[in-house]
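Researcher: Here's the sequence for the chain we discussed earlier.
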Amino acid sequence: MEQYSQQLNGIFQALADPTRRAVLGRLGRGPASISDLATPFDMALPSFMKHIRLLEKGGLIRTSKDGRVRTCVLERKTLAAAEAWLSTQRAVWEASTDRLEQFVTTRRKGKSR
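Model: Thanks. This is the structure I predict for it:
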């Protein structure tokens, strides 16, 4: 459980930044080189590489090097882990709101008598 929690911490830390989310959005369409990924952003390559390293550390992407070109690929299984956690949380909250709705409805019926 602790390892799962640490994995989620890394995932959500990586997702917390709009630059990293944009990179993931681009990688959702297929692999890309780091230079292609960096092009839309107004930042120096060393700064952009910090984002890449954090995404890699969070397990959201995998990089490989072929000659001088480093290519990034989205790790969909990691995103599935985050989605599973979010789905569980959604189910908990929906159950809570269902119980609240039932309580309010029951109270209204009791007062209208």
